[in-house]
Structure formats: C-alpha cells, structure tokens
Amino acid sequence: MSSEQATQAAAAAAAAAASTPVEKAAPAQSKKQSKKSKKQDQQFLLKTPKGTKDWADKDMIIREAVFGSLSSLFKRHGGVTIDTPVFELREILTGKYGEDSKLIYNLEDQGGELTSLRYDLTVPFARFVACNSISNIKRFHIAKVYRRDQPAMTKGRMREFYQCDFDIAGNYDTMVPDSEILKITTEGLTGLGINDFKIKLNHRKILDGIFQACGVKDDDVRKISSAVDKLDKSPWEAVKKEMVVEKNQPEEVADKIAQKGIEEMTILADYVEAFGIEKHLSFDLSLARGLDYYTGLIYEAVTAASAPPTNASELKEKAKKETKEVEDASEYVGVGSIAAGGRYDNLVGMFSNGKSIPCVGISFGVERIFSIIKARAAKQLEKLSSSQTQVFVMAFGGGEGWNGFLKERMEVTNKLWSAGINSEFLYKAKPNIRKQFDAADKSGSQVAVILGKEEYPQGQVRVKVLGQGDDSDEGDLVKVEDLVKSVEVQAI
Amino acid sequence: MSSEQATQAAAAAAAAAASTPVEKAAPAQSKKQSKKSKKQDQQFLLKTPKGTKDWADKDMIIREAVFGSLSSLFKRHGGVTIDTPVFELREILTGKYGEDSKLIYNLEDQGGELTSLRYDLTVPFARFVACNSISNIKRFHIAKVYRRDQPAMTKGRMREFYQCDFDIAGNYDTMVPDSEILKITTEGLTGLGINDFKIKLNHRKILDGIFQACGVKDDDVRKISSAVDKLDKSPWEAVKKEMVVEKNQPEEVADKIAQKGIEEMTILADYVEAFGIEKHLSFDLSLARGLDYYTGLIYEAVTAASAPPTNASELKEKAKKETKEVEDASEYVGVGSIAAGGRYDNLVGMFSNGKSIPCVGISFGVERIFSIIKARAAKQLEKLSSSQTQVFVMAFGGGEGWNGFLKERMEVTNKLWSAGINSEFLYKAKPNIRKQFDAADKSGSQVAVILGKEEYPQGQVRVKVLGQGDDSDEGDLVKVEDLVKSVEVQAI
Predict the structure, then answer these.
(1) Do domains B3-381 and B391-490 have the same CATH topology?
(2) CB contact (8 A) between residue B136 and residue A275
(3) With contacts defined as CB-CB under 8 Å, which chain B residues touch A168?
(4) Of residues A187, A387, A411, nearest to B79 (C-beta)
C-alpha cells in the first residue's frame, strides 16, 4: 500500500464524514476536566480517571481511519480477528512482564476469582491459543490495554491505550513468518502515510551470546537486557557498568549461542529482499526490548518525525510548573517507537503443559501513530465533521394556520431513510428558517429538502444543494414521488 | 432497512470472508476450559474468568456484521460515535443503578483514585455530556460493560458483554426525538432480519400517578417499579402485595401526574404513525424498568422467538448437574428482551451542577440478538470461513535441484499485496503439493497462482480457479507481468 493510498484512506474517511453535531456550549474538556461540580451534598470530580480520556469528534474519525487501514492490511495477509476479555485470571498474567508486572491493574477481590486488566494483547493471545489447542493461526486484535504507569516516571503515558497487534502462531520454516511480519510492519506504516521510519532489528540469541561472553549470569540476562535497551539514550559507560558484573563463563559457549542468531539473521536478509523492504531495516545491537518472553528476532520501528505523547497539552502545562523535570525528555520510554515486536516461542507452552506453539508478532503503537497523523493532517481536519448526514429536511412557511409541517417532515425523512439515505430534521414543531439552515450546516448535509407552505400540499418539494454560497438559489422543484431519485443524484 | 437488506448484510460479510485459518488440533474451548495445565511448580487454571468468553471464527463474523448493520443505521440518523474509558471514577457510578449497584466491579485500591468498571454506557455518556458542556448530540457507542451477576441468581448472564447504544441529548419539542428513537429501534431489529417483535411502551409519569393513587411513598417508587416490572412473570397478587403499602395521598395529585404522561403518549401516537412503525408498538402498563434514572417514556423490545442466553452450552451442562435450579427459568431477568431504553432528563444534571440536558436513548442487547441470528443462520454459517484470503501462491516441482521457490513465491505474493489482493503462501521452504492445496482450501482462496519448476523460470505462472471440483484443470498459463490483471478477473 502506497502513501497515496493512505492519504486516500484518510480522505475517504473525511469525505464520508460531514458535520459536527456536538455543539459545545462552553470551552473544551481539557479546561473543564479539573473543575469541580457541586450537587446537593455530593462533590463530583468531573473527569475521567487519571491516564484515561474520552474520544470524540475528529479524533474519532482519524482513529477509525487508522484502524480501518490496518484491518484491511491484516486481512490482505490472511489474518482473522479475535476478541478476548478485558480482564484475565491474575495468575495468567503473573511472571510474564518482568519488572513491569507492578504496573498491572488488579480488580478488587469481591469474592471469587482474582482477576486483573490485561497488560498487553500478547499474553491473552498465547492463553487463547493454548485454551483452544490451536496449532496455527494468523490473528489480529485491536483493543485497549491497561498499565498503571506513574506519570512522574514516564511523563504523560496513558494508562488506558489501544494496541493493534498481528501475530502468526505455528510451526514453520526459519524466518519465513518473521519476514512477513516485517513486511506487514512496513506496509502498515507506509499505508498510513508514514514513510520516514527505520525498523531496528536484533536477535535475542546474538544478545545472549554477547552477554555470556561478558560473563552475565543467566538469571541476570533480562535485567541486563533492559539496561542495553537504553543504549540509544544513555552513555555506554553507564550501561557497561550495569552490565559487566562477573566473568566466569567459557567463551565458546557464548560463541555457539550467538552463532545461531547470526545464521538466522542471514536467512532473514534474503527474505526481506524478496519483500522489497530492506531499505527500512537496520541491524542494531543496542536493541534489547524489556519483556521477558522474546526468544528470537526482535524489532522496533522508530521515526524521526515522531510526535509528542498523546496528551501533549497536559505535558506543556506541567512543563510550566516543573521545567527541570520535563527538560529531561531523554527519559521518555521509547519516544519515537511506533511499532515493536518479536518472536516468542515459549509463551504458549507456559499455558499448555509445555506443548509450545512458536509465535512471532508486531504491535503497532496506534496512539503515537495517531498523534503523528493528526499533526500532519491538521489543515485537512479543519473542514472535517464527524457525522455522515447527507440530507436535511426543512419546512418553510409562517403566518396564519402555519403548523410547521413536523409530521410531514417526519414522513419525508422516513422515505429517505427507507432508501438508505442519511437524513435529519430539526426536532421542533415550528422551526424557523435560519435555525434549520444552521443545523443543516452543522450536520454537514450536502442537500436540503424543503417543504414549502404552498408547494408541499400540492405534492412538491424543493431540492437545494448546500454550501454553494448562492442564497438566491431556491433549488429544484420536484414531485414528492421523485424525491429519492432526485436526492440520490445531488447527494454524492 | 428491510429484512432482505439484513440478509444481504450478513451475506456480504459471508461473501467477504473465506476460510478457517484457525486449525484446531483438539476439541473446542468449552471442553478444554476447565482443564488444568501444569507447568513447573505453577498450576494454571486455563480459562477465561467466570462470565467472560473469547470471540473468534464465525461468531466474530456475525458479530461484526451486526455491529456494521447497527452502525450504518445510526449514521443514517445523523449519529456520531464516541469512546469513553472502560473504568470511571467510582463516585460517578454511585447512586445511579439502585439495587443493582452491588453488581459493579471495583478496581483494587492500589493507591490513587478509586475506580470501577462501567456498568452501562448511559452513565458514562451523561458524564461525557456534562464533562464537555455539550448542549446537544446524537451519539452511538458500541462497547463492553461489566456486571458481577451471580450465576445462581441470573443463570448464565455474562459478566462482560456488549451494549450498543444510541442516545439523543438536547432540548427539543415533546416526543420528537423519542419517536425517532423508537423508529431506530424498529429499523435496527428489522435491519438484522428480526421482524417478530413488539416494543412495549409505558411512561414513568403515568406509573408515578398510579403509584401515588395507590399511596406509594415517593421514596418507595423505584423499589415498587422493580416489582411492577416483574408483572409479566409473577402473578398480580404477588406484585400487588409488594406495591400497596400505605394510602395517604390525595387522589388529585396522582391524577395530575398521570395526566402529563397520558398527554405525551397521545402526541407520540401521532409521530410514530408518520414513521410507519405503529404496528410494532403496544402500550403496556406493566412495563416499569428497574433503573433509577428514567423520567418519561420507557420501552422494551421483546421477541417471541428469543434465543437462550449466549452461553447456552454452559447452561445445558449445568442443567445436567442441577436440574432443579435451571428449570426455574422464569427467573431469567428479561428473557425475550432484545432492546430497551427510555427518557432520562435529570442524569446529566447530576454531573453538571444541576444544569441538565434532557436525554432519550435505546440500548440493543446485541449478545441476545447475536444468539437469535446465529441460530437462524446456522446452515449458511457452515460454509463460512473467517479469513478473507483471495489468492494462494504455490510452487509445483520436485527432483534434482528443486529448491521450493520460496523466495519466488514471496516475490509473487508481494506483487499481489501491492495490488491490494489478499494473498497467502505456505511458510515452508519446500512445500508439498497436497499441503499447499489443503492450506489454500482452509484459507478460502478462490484462486491459486502456481509457480511451476519449468514454467516460472520462463516468466510464466498458472492461474487456477479453486473449488470447481475439476482436478484435471491445470489453470491458465499467463505471463508474470500479466498476473495481477489475470487474478483480478478470476478473484471476484
């Protein structure tokens, strides 16, 4: 998929949409959020919980366009979608996330099973594969995950956010599904109009070999991995100090381990050439990925043009108060990373009595991708509206005996609905003309159907194209029975 | 939308889909769910939490078709979608659900704000409207809600399930948005092929008048409402005993209250005629709806042909063990109810310092609707598969020097992907012919592209239409550069 197609996808979403029916009577949420509202004796803190937010309006349109683009991509590669519960038995999640396990949200023990909100979509996927004794599947899953990140630590990361995952489970030949995952990662980003990215690659077995050579104890490998992962942000001296603890392993063992990884990377190089994606890949020994479960190839797509975290406005506000803390921006965990994943061959086995199913997958950081697209499309978005109304049905009249044609407008609108045409009318018995045009404008309707006081009783209505800036145009007079046909020509 | 269109929607979803890439190596989840799996010292109970389930395969296709049909409907009526966090500040939910508040899932107090999983989509919507100072909106929201129902009480209700809501907020003329909501309810159900339903109507003010006449104290009204709501299940005597407590209110007050409701119902009768939905409506004084927040019109769509709750298989299994409990099926809360809602004019005001925005809405019980559609479409579903693959790329060959054309298959598949064609190939270096056809079959591909040992090096491939039952047909020999064009003709 080319970037043109991505732009088209966004444009399609834009074209399909056509109004802002959310009329705000006062300033936007960010300002209102922290305002307290009083009711009787109760004090409501009127906001969403820390680290969460509402989605609406244009943000929602962009989000749906992003999800739509990625879903089509996944289907193009034979993927099927699944849905798992938002919480899992707590023991399913235990011991899968290393140090990050402390960020898991637990549900209150209200009697019965102990459960926790999912931390990612990978562990629930492995549980699903084991639960259903699946031998192979290409699945995608777009859903929210939950992490109790401390704002002080990660500066603005959301606690509820979307992940968008594609994984291939099954026993296959070395690096074949892995290379397709890299292809999907590339297509996913270019398909959304993001072309200035690199996918950093590394291999756990190469890393493990190096760690062994450095004398890192097996038990310490994952801890050290986290340290190495910071190499592009911290100076080598700091990382080395953390890494080189003791040296008591024979060098040949390390060589053997690393050798396997190097062989696989050579095979991979051949396949990614067939998929034509070499130019986006770069081998990077400093890439380690913190999670416990990776066993082979690991990768992370980064972009130079990365946008700030989604709640940038919040960050700015904070910056005013605590300038020092925010200046230290190098501590953002993974700024610039817009997709990441790897091979995890042992995770399913942890759930299925050791009978493991090898897996490899990619997770798109859709919230960050969303910010990039939003920043780039800012201008086009101004014109966007969030409803998809095509026709607004109005009544013109006044004076003695004028009843506002409410029932008549309902009947005409009903006719349009039956023909599958998105239509609205004003919920007022006697609406004035200006208010009807205002509402039509806000709804984004392209066409007005007007019931005139004299014309309608004679079986005629006017069909007027909106947004032409020509107020003198009264529209075409058509018979009520020809209305649908006439509107279908004008709207779209 | 006609039932034909609904069938078309389902058929479209069916046609778009084409395989079962989920290969099961063993029996399905239900049997496996309760099986314990042992790993090292840990004991995993390999299942989803009580009252939750995974969605996959054909269920997922039906669900997406149902959501798609309802989303189009909502957009046809000018609706926009929003998304709110899965958990809210606990105080937002407090005092909104009457007796059912005990079913709210709390998140563990891990320090910081106290939060709970949303119980429905209505209270979060009211919070959203208040938070953003919205004066009017037509919004829809399709998402999961959470209720700690005790299986012993409700027999098989899910604890995590989808709701599909459309609500209109704003100050409008009496019964105008209300009648459109009833229109949407009707279209929603007929649009899914469900035509044998009735929408029971009642008005809170008529009920309140009656209660006053009966001498029910204000504080007891909601409690009594719950009792009345059981009228279609329990004998009148039992309900009356619960209702008639004391009589000390003057009758004229009651008359006045009820009068307002009766007036509104008369206006409504006029409007629903304009929308052509009278035949589906019936006034039912026994309808009360348990929730605290309703203030005007209330309604519930019921179907004779209602299916059992979604986890029917679980119920059956239980039935074997505890026959008595399950026979008492009359206790199912709302069996037969497939959509319900009403007017709630004071809920937003509870969040916004008393400045209220009147609201009216409908919630579709999509899980129950899903069961009905699934039961009716059982036969068509047999042929369905969940992936949407169009083309399977294969290699034919063998003998000396045969390398399996893995890289070549990758290149050809890549070409198809670039043209937007959903394509797969087998992840094996040297795949055998039978296994490639099996995989193509499971993927639901309509077309095979075959790279022959002699033909491909000469720049030619075979394009063979699958599922014709004619194994002798070798397909058409085409030049590689004409492949995309040729495939586009064959696949759809």
Answers:
(1) no
(2) no
(3) 427
(4) A387
Query: B60: how many CB neighbours lie within 10 A of its CB?
Result: 17
Cβ–Cβ gap A46/B127 under 8 Å: yes
Three-state DSSP string of A165-197: EEEEECCCCCCHHHHHHHHHHHHHHHCCCCCCE
Residues B223-277 have pLDDT tens digits of: 666 666 665 555 555 555 555 543 444 556 567 767 888 899 999 999 999 999 9
Q: Which residue has the higher pLDDT, B9 or A349?
A: A349
Query: Taking CB atoms and an 8 Å cutoff, what residues of chain A touch B56?
Result: 80, 82-83, 128, 132
Q: What mean pLDDT comes out for the span B39-53?
A: 75
Tracing tokens 């009903």 back to the chain, one arrives at: A414
Of A210-224, B153-167, B264-278, least confident by mean pLDDT is: A210-224
Of B193, B145, B161, the residue nearest B310 (C-alpha): B161
Complex-level ipTM? 0.82
Average confidence (pLDDT) over B312-321: 46
**Which tops the pLDDT comparison, A306 or A139?**
A139
* Distance between A2 CA and the closest CA of chain B, angstroms: 8
Q: From residue A229, give the alpha-carbon distance in Å to each of A182, A288, A299, B252.
A: 20, 5, 12, 77
Residue A346 Cα, gap to closest chain B Cα (Å)? 12
Q: What is the mean pLDDT of residues A387-392?
A: 92
The count of CB pairs under 8 A between chains A and B is: 332
**DSSP letters along A410-457, please?**
HHHHHHHHHTT--EEE-S-SS--HHHHHHHHHHHT-SEEEEEETTTGG
Mention every residue, 6+ apart, whose C-beta is less than 8 A from residue B143. B83, B84, B86, B121, B162, B163
Predicted local confidence at residue B385, as pLDDT: 67
Given phi > 0 = left and psi -120 to 50 = alpha, else beta, which region is B289? left
Residues A459, A480 contacting (CB under 8 angstroms): yes
CA nearest neighbour of B491 among B398, B422, B413, B442: B422
Query: What pLDDT, on a 0 to 100 scale, did the predictor assign at position B9?
Result: 44
CB-neighbour burial class of residue B42 (10 A; exposed 0-12, middle 13-18, buried 19+): exposed
The residue with greater pLDDT, B258 or B51, is B51
Pairwise pLDDT comparison (A333 vs A408), residue with the higher score: A408
Do the beta carbons of residue B394 and residue B87 sit within 8 Å?
Answer: no
Whether the per-residue pLDDT at A2 is higher than 70: the answer is: no
Tell me, which fold does domain B3-381 have in CATH? Answer: BirA Bifunctional Protein; domain 2 (3.30.930)
Domains of chain B, residue spans = 3-381, 391-490
> Token digits for B376?
């009716």
Question: A224 CA to chain B: closest CA distance, Å?
Answer: 25
- The CATH number given to A391-490 is 3.40.50.800
B:433-462 residues touching chain A, CB 8 A cutoff: 443
- Cα separation, A87 vs A116, in Å, equals 5
Annotated binding site: which residue ranges of A? 120-122, 147, 163, 167, 289, 293-294
Q: Which of B25, B50, B88 sits opposite A49 (nearest CB)?
A: B88
